[in-house]
Amino acid sequence: MNTNRQLKGDDSLNEALSSWVVSDSLPARFQEQVWQRIAREESRDHSMVLITIWRLLETVLPRPRVAISYIVAVLALGAVAGSLAAQRTGHQLEAELSLRYFQSVAPYQSHP
Amino acid sequence: MRKGVLILLLGVLAGLCGFGVLFYIRTIPQRRMMQEPQPELAWLKTEFGLSDSQFARVVQLHEAYLPDCAERCKRIEEQNGKLRSLLVGSSALTEEIRAVLAERARLRADCEAEMLRHFVEISRSMPTRQGQRYLAWVQQQTFLQGVGMEQRHQVGHNQTGARGTH
């Protein structure tokens, strides 16, 4: 019973929609206003991120435990990066010196 | 707020210090090596774990080898010069060109033989296993490595072989 009534309602809605003609024109500078709203929303998202970072700096980082953990973590990260960079430099130097050795003893050979 | 920024900057500074200190400490051996009079030989000492006396012997052999090596290189270069001038003045394979090519090949063969003798001597100055490793390494890098035309022909043969199988 309910379903029949609903179907009838849908039919009359479909009829009304198909007979509906939009006679009004869009307001002036409608598209421009839409784009401006989108831009405003996007800039609000960016500023929200900045505000969150700002609040973290203001409230979370000054806590002693967080501050010490942060400094230790960055120190460790720097140390690991320094160690890896030194390792890479060492490998490059070894390659260069082995090449120099070959150039000194085997000038007519292809170089490794 | 100022406290937060200060801690942030302190962290960045700590990171930079960590990087600098570790980089400095871990590159000390390399810097020492580069300050040696012959860094390539200092590298050989480190790479093959030579004692001071073994290293002294290696340096002695190396220094004795270099003047003869330079002399051989000079003679090969003379032949290269001769060949260059003959090739400029001729568009055919003359007997003279053939003789220069043969002489240059002979000099190169002598050079390679002397080089191998030197490598063997050096390897004998090292601890047995390191000497074997050194010899295998230098031979691989010099005599056993295909160069120039040989390598190109090797590629050519492989391609021909691959086509043949299809």
Brief write-up:
Chain A has helices spanning 2-19, 30-60, 64-105. With 112 residues, chain A is an all-alpha fold. Chain B has seven helices and no strands.
Query: What's the alpha carbon Rg of chain A, rounded to whole Å?
Result: 35 Å
Number of helices, counting only DSSP H or I runs of 4 residues or more of chain B: 7
Sketch the topology of chain B as an H/E string, one letter per element: HHHHHHH
Q: Distance N terminus to C terminus of chain A?
A: 90 Å
**What is the H-and-E element order of chain A?**
HHH
Shape of chain A: elongated
Main sheet makeup of chain A: none
Mean pLDDT value of chain A: 84
Unreliable spans of chain B: 160-166
The helix content of chain A, as a percent range, equals: over 70%
Biggest interface: A-B, 40 and 51 residues
Give the tally of β-strands of chain A: 0
What is the radius of gyration of chain B?
Answer: 26 Å
- What percent of residues of chain B adopt helix (DSSP H or I)? over 70%
Q: Give the termini distance of chain B in whole angstroms.
A: 74 Å
Oligomer: heterodimer
Largest β-sheet summary of chain B = none
Number of helices of chain A: 3
- Low-confidence spans of chain A: pLDDT under 50, at least 5 residues? none
- Provide the residue-averaged pLDDT of chain B: 87
User: Which class best fits the helix and strand makeup of chain B?
Assistant: mainly alpha
